Amino acid sequence: QMADPFLYNTGERSHYGCLGHEVQIDYLKAYVCRPSFSTDKAVIVVHDVFGWQFPDIRYIVDLIAGHGYITVCPDFFKGTKPWTSTDHWADFPDWLKNHDPMKVDKEADVVLKYLKEQCGAKKIGIVGFSWGGMAVHHLMLKNPQLAAGVSLYGIVRDSEERYSLLNPTFFIFGEKDHTISLDQIFLLEDKLKQYCKVPYKIKVYPGQVHGFAQLKPEDMKPDDKPYIEEARRDMIDWIKMFV
């Protein structure tokens, strides 16, 4: 039984009344939330294995929009079934073959085009969680249109072409993440020092497990709350600095 790489205990989640609305972008469905004033700045949110309709992700979209960004979470699974907490872990490798976080380039381009042409966005950042964190790491190596990225607990894959980031990228990890060892984080830091030519930051939050940063306020444990809030502030500050 290998350690389960993405799934964290989703537990009972409280209901969330969303502030945004769903739209069709080319062949993708997406959830969009706009700030109360007009802006030419936007952020793409990449969901985790639980997909674009997961309440925690919609909460994050609304949160980022509240800071003044047109925020969009497209369905990177293109209408296929997201992973659910009742699925069998033995089936996860097969599911993942058809949901590869490195194969998101086409969807990213479709959404970038929409943000520029339909929403008037001039600067666009990207934020992703877990599966989405891996997608962000990939896109920040490939897509120069993304002005800045935040990868939250995306598993670190080591290969020589993983470190030449095109634009400023911030990596957020939990200290107690059973899927990402501190060794992997030190390796990332080491390699970025060698190869990375743009600003980057790595931060590890004490005592936090995989998936910690996307909890809604009523689902947070009191001990974790300060770290969750700090991670979210740090995420927004990074976006504000570069987008």
Automatic annotation (TrEMBL):
InterPro entries: AB_hydrolase_fold, CMBL, Dienelactn_hydro
One Pfam family of this chain: DLH
Record GO terms (molecular function): hydrolase activity
SUPFAM superfamilies assigned: alpha/beta-Hydrolases
Location of the Dienelactone hydrolase domain: 29-241
UniProt GO cellular component terms: cytosol
Annotated localization: Cytoplasm, Cytosol
Family the entry assigns: Belongs to the dienelactone hydrolase family.
Protein name stated in the entry: Carboxymethylenebutenolidase homolog
Source organism of this protein record: Cardinalis cardinalis
Gene name for this UniProt entry: Cmbl_0
